[in-house]
Design a protein that fits this description.
The structure is a single chain. This protein is of the alpha+beta class and 1880 residues long. 62% of the residues lie in helices and 7% in strands. The chain has 51 helices and 28 strands. The strands form nine sheets. It has a seven-stranded mixed beta sheet, sandwiched between helices. Strands 6-5-3-2-7 form a five-stranded antiparallel beta sheet. A three-stranded antiparallel beta sheet has the order 20-21-22. Strand 15 and strand 16 form a beta hairpin. Helix 25 packs across helix 26. The protein is elongated, with a radius of gyration of 62 Å.
Length: 1880
Amino acid sequence: MVKQGSGGTEDALFALSDDNGTRKCARVWIPDIEEVWKSAELTKDYKNGDASLQLMLEDGTNLEHKLDPKTKNLPYLRNPDILVGENDLTALSYLHEPAVLHNLKVRFIDSKLIYTYCGIVLVAINPYETLPIYGTDIINAYSGQNMGDMDPHIFAVAEEAYKQMARDERNQSIIVSGESGAGKTVSAKYAMRYFATVSGSASEANVEEKVLASNPIMEAIGNAKTTRNDNSSRFGKYIEIGFDNRYRIIGANMRTYLLEKSRVVFQADEERNYHIFYQLCASSHLPEFKNLKLSNANDFLYTRQGCSPIIDGVDDTKELCTTRHAFSLLGINETHQMGLFQVLAAILHLGNVEIKDKDSDSSFIPPNNHHLSKFCELVGVTYEDMAQWLCHRKLKTASETYIKTLPRLQATNARDALSKHIYAKLFNWIVEHVNKALVTNIKQHSFIGVLDIYGFETFEINSFEQFCINYANEKLQQQFNMHVFKLEQEEYMKEQIPWTLIDFYDNQPCINLIEAKMGVLDLLDEECRMPKGSDDSWAQKLYNTHLKTCSLFEKPRMSNRAFIIQHFADKVEYQCEGFLEKNKDTVNEEQIKVLKASKFDLLVELFQDEGKVTSPTGQTPGTGGRTRLSVKPDKNRDNSSKEHKKTVGCQFRNSLQMLMETLNATTPHYVRCIKPNDFKMAFSFDPKRAVQQLRACGVLETIRISAAGFPSRWTYQEFFSRYRVLMKQKDVLSDKKLTCKNVLEKLVEDQDKYQFGKTKIFFRAGQVAYLEKLRADKLRAACIRIQKTIRCWLARKKYLRMRDAAITIQRFTRGYQARCLAKFMRRTQAAIIIQKHQKMYVARKRYRQKQAAALAIQTILRAYMARQKYKALLRQHKAVIIQKHARGWLARRWYKRCLSSIVYLQCCIRRMKARRELKKLKIEARSVEHFKKLNKGMENKIMQLQRKIDEQSKENKSVNERLAGLENTYATESERLRGELGRLRGVEEDARSKGNQVNCLLEELEKLKKELRTTQQEKKTIEDWAQSYKGQMEKMVSELKDQNGLLKKEKDDLNRLIQEQNQQMTEKMARAIVAETQQLETDLNEERSRYQNLLTEHLRLEEKYDDLKEHFSKTGHRRTDSTHSSNESEYTYKSEFAESEEGSLAAEDLTRGMDTSLTLKLQKRLTELEQEKQSLRNELENKEEQFQRARARDESEFKKARGAELEYESLKRQELESENKKLKHDLAEMRKSLLGSAASSAGAPGSPAYKVLLDQLNSSCEELEVRKEEVLILRSQLVSQKEAMQHKETMTEVAVHVEDISKLKDADELKQAYIGLKDTNRSTAPDFQKLNEDGELWLVNEGLKETVRLLEHQLQTQRRSYDSEVESLRGELQNVKEENNRQQQLLAQNLQLPPEARIEASLQHEITRLTNENLEQAANDPTASREARVIILRRMVDLMEQLEKQDRTIRKLKKQLKVYSKRIGEMGAGQAEGQTSPGQTVDEPIRPVNIPRREKDFQGMLEYKKEDELKLVKNLILELKPRGVAVNLIPGLPAYILFMCIRHADYVNDDQKVRTLLTSTINSIKKILKKRGDDFETVSFWLANTCRFLHCLKQYSGDDVFMKHNTSRQNEHCLSNFDLTEYRSVISDLAIQIYQQLIKCMENTLQPMIVSGMLEHETIQGVSGVKPTGLRKRTSSIADEGTYTLDSILRQLNAFHSTMCQHGTDPELIKQVVKQQFYVIGAVTLNNLLLRKDMCSWSKGMQIRYNVSQLEEWLRDKGLMNCGAKETLEPLIQAAQLLQVKKKTDEDAEAICSMCLALTTAQIVKVLNLYTPVNEFEERVSVSFIRTIQTRLRDRCESPQLLMDTKMIYPITFPFNPSSLALETIQIPSSLNLAFLTRV
């Protein structure tokens, strides 16, 4: 065998190498323990002979990779980045394990893509997350597509199988495999859902629903939780879905394999038993399950061993409901269901039966065991028998039979074996009944089988079950290898490539080891037949037989009870323990006999076919004639003995062999499911687990087989388009095949690397990568050359620009320098001159300055010297004077000093001498001489004294004289003094009196002082009181100011709140109006869509009836497609009778056989319409109830808010009143105190305290004046409002508030009004005594009271109007309910009446009801409330009109049913039809319409005879061809002719003629459309004429609404006798049907063009590059012959538009058609873009934007830009922009979120995930960027749907378009063959 991919890798390495080595920077894969494979890059060239490679990992780590010295195999090369993420692994250039693993990882992790092709295999990776990729829209998108044209999907595989079954007439098989938890069951389920959705059912039994309903049943009884999967299938199944010859599902059949019975009695940790047990335990509380005596799952041994009874996110109770519903759907009634649940509960109770040891060889069950009693009760057996045979066993010998006791362990095993056997029987019974429910008696033409089987398994302990599973996978792998090999061989032979034998792995030796003679199974069966066979002896036989002879068989080193087999996927070690027991699968026969004797019928039924089934699970053979994978035993032999002789291994081998025969007889399709991790984490990829499964499932073997040959295949066109850049112009020839050959011979020298086929080129592995490298190098070289040239051009341009700039700069610089030089020279010369004069001037000036300075100095100096000299002289003169005086003073001072010194000296001397003399005298006195001397001295002295006396006498005399004079003077003076003394004595008396008075005054002064002190204290007290009062007043004033500020603030806040509420209310009302308008528009569109869908459904029923009639009338005629629309209205059946003259009686007799089924279907349809009518009425009632609830809720909220506000206002008012009273009281007290202290000096006017208080009083008065003015203004405004309100009409509450607010002109009035209303609420009864003196406050209060009364009156008026409105609405609601009841009663009564009376009664009731409604509306609905209720009434009227339409439809269907019933029963009355009009039935008499008449003059009419009516219809409608005669006609001429005929019938007042002509016209149009409904021109022609006919009926109806644009002459042509409103409605329905048929024709024509023209075709050649594709080839994007392009779409759009314009279609209708066309184009293109990874690239975005621009240009040319068509392309435009914008930073993410508003989040993420670079220069979108986008778009509220609905049709409207054409001017061409018409 060839090593996997090694050759291709080495070739590729050397292809990228030089002569002797591999180039640097080549990227390779190297093995890694953690990641399996790791990417690295060569840092050094490799040369042959090197022992190692120098590599650098992606994280920058350098590594030396040593090569194997023996093999010298180089590492695997990496594919170019452009090839990574391909849909098909075979598209990779290098096909090897790391490339496959990396490609799967990139698609799974980065792109969130779980499906990938690998040749013929679909690899499905379990995402462990619910993805929105399985909806009906996805199914429709994949339906009919080639497998390679869309991204990989399970639906693509299912579509391929379905298509091959229909194309090749060969049965198909889809083989789904994988290990537990990989998603096999889900994949098989989706495949079956696809078949059920696409194919439909061939009968009315809904087989496809039953097929899908079998899934929950099989999951409940066959699936369980394991450690790897929460819903693991523990059995294999093969479901055959049968189809008839038209490939519709007719039935199904299921086969099961190897049910894991051991799970019933044992579960490992973290595992569960089968789901059904836990569903029963969870539902044990239900009444119907009480007798089962079940409880929590933890109470039973069989359900608690795994310790995991609950699965997160799964509600077992709901799951049981689903299972029971599925049972019911499959025909298993409640009795059987309860029987099944009874058996299952018995198994649980049996598991709880406790068996105890009696001794070492025996055991027993304690008496009255509760669980055994319950088991026996549930299964209907005796307690004693079951207890006996659970602990005993009967042994038979040749001569006797004896009973042997069983040890406890064996008895427990026997109990568990019985439980497993019962469950297996129950499982088989359910499978059998499911198959019976899915079987059909219709012959099966072909089938598609879906095989959901276990994958390769290997655990730590592998037993018999794993051995059988791996054996089955060996067989499937062999079949898979052979099929892949066969496909490769067929491809090579088809392309005429030389076929060389490819060596691939053949696992036949392993299969022989298992199933051949003396193989593992053979030895196992032999050992089971041995009396004393054991697992150990069987193991020894295996060792002896195969250990030395087979290389695939090994023995473990440390065990003698195990063996190893080398499977295709891996080595598996099996433990021999339990193999024999599981292979025998023995059950105690006596226990079976006890169960067979049960009174429980279902249990007996389970065991009655005990010997008939020998499949691995004991299942019964199915029905339907298909091959069954079970073996029927020989009926001639004993069944019971046969059962025990057939081992499980033998049964499984035979079943597996039959399965392989079935698969070999079908075309297989493979789905390989991969489990990405063992932790069930969403989008988490474990490379180890993935590569292990890839090796096990055969994907790598497919890769290896492909890589061994020529894996890469290109068509010549694709190769030429991709590698055109590698060709020179001379190499391009007209023959592309020859061109490719010549180029390849030059590019690849080794011709063994490629082969040329008939249509493709085959390449060896690695060659595409080599060519991609050459292409990338060429493009890179071209880019470099372009860059070089551009950079050279830019550099040269820059250089020339710089050179020119330099020259210019130099020129200007030199000129500037020259000018500067000249200027410098001039300046120099001027400077010299200036300097000369300046220097001269300076010198002269300096000389003069020096001269003047010298003179000044001399003058100053001379003056100074003179002054100095003068000063010296003056100083000298003064000094002389000073000296003179000083010398004189000094001389005098010296003289005085000398004189004083001399005197002092003399004194001193004299004193000294006197002292001496005194001393001497004292001495002499003491002596005689002293006395003598004294006497002498005395004498002298006496003489002296005498002389002195004389002198004194003289002096005395003189003194006496003077004294006498003085005495005289004194006497006079004394007299005078005496007088003065008297006077003074009087004064003294006065003084004494004054003194007394002074004392009194002093006392009074003391008193005054005391009073003064008292006054001062009082003053101080007053001042303190004044100060405190002043503080209080100031505080009170500040509080009042604060309160006033708060009030002002509150007033401002309330005013602002009023404004905000007003604004909010206005905005709310505006939003409500807009929302209501939008809701009404939405409801209108929904009702239109619903009505149009009803019309479509009605047409489908009519068409089905016509097809059935044609089928019975014409033998061999095939039924038309059920999706074809015949566009017939409710009048179709009448025309059938008009046309029945041309039929034969034999055809009519054949219709009698289908009357019953037709009647039943019509009755069913009638019931549906009645139900829909009832639903519409219920919707009306719900709307009305919602409206009433909303009004009641608003009213209650308003009342609550108003009550709270009034309460708050009342509290505030009371507080203000109390404060006002307090202020008034304080004011009065203050005034009194001021008046009381007015006499005192402290409180006198003008004092500071008085001034402060007066200022405060004045400010308060001013504030009060301001308040009074505001109140007066408010009063005047409210009075004016009252006068205005008296003339105002009552409206609803919201309207009243809005109008009241709107009456206030500005914000100030609004504020004042609100404040007045607020103050009014605060006002109470006035206190006249406490108001101010002038009574102004009382007047203000009276005004406020008047305002309160006015507002209360207004509020009461509003409430009364609101109550009356509510009562009226309630009355209307009650009337509607009563009317509904009356309608129901009338309907019930009408159904009991005869048909004629029924119709008449219905019409009469409708007329009466409408008349009553009109009268009630005219009487009870005043004009004032009409505007407020117009929206609601309009809604109600619309709903009532819809109900009336439904009533009419029901009546008409009933009428038609009655007519047909009578028609079938009275076939003999057909002769009378010739006398009836074409529009009248046989049984219905003509009833004239009671329409008012008008008399006018008429012109422009056409007259015809009644017998010419058929000819008129035939020539004008049935035989008129739009491409022939009608081309030259006036647009709408047939409509004008028909209307002119109607006008004449109206003129002659012939209602029968009007009715028959209109009915014949309608039915003829339907007939021609049914006959030629696929012709766009025919449908467009009659759509235009039908609309014109409808417009004529409106224009000339006489209604004022439609007569606005008429001329006076046209108004004279109006109908005068008949009101054709009902017929207008019928014709409008006909126009809707024609429009829908037109859209279908358009879609059928455009659908094949859209994808090819918008996506695949390269409108801009060379922008997109074709990437390599794999085995699943896509449609080439290169325009081959026969493919559609954008020009094809534009030409088709032109054809549509020109056809509609030529036919005179209304412009508005053309706009709607074009809008629908563009929607289909955009939706189909976007859906394909979202499902095709190869289309999501930058270049494709450019192509799409260019194509869209061409479509917009087409709209612009046709003048249709405002029709809304461009908006329908907005999602496609944004998707194209998304492909082209940058996708890296957060700013890019923000731009994308703001740009892609028309795309949903799912669509944006899908495009980003699918984005694929076409060239190496592009970059992929990172996962983090996508997560950023998802985070930003998380808050969007939108539908999670991925694809757009391509079947959606916009509701059609027919705007009135009057014609200016005068009827009297119309001429009838002779080509119409209408000569029998006469103009009037």
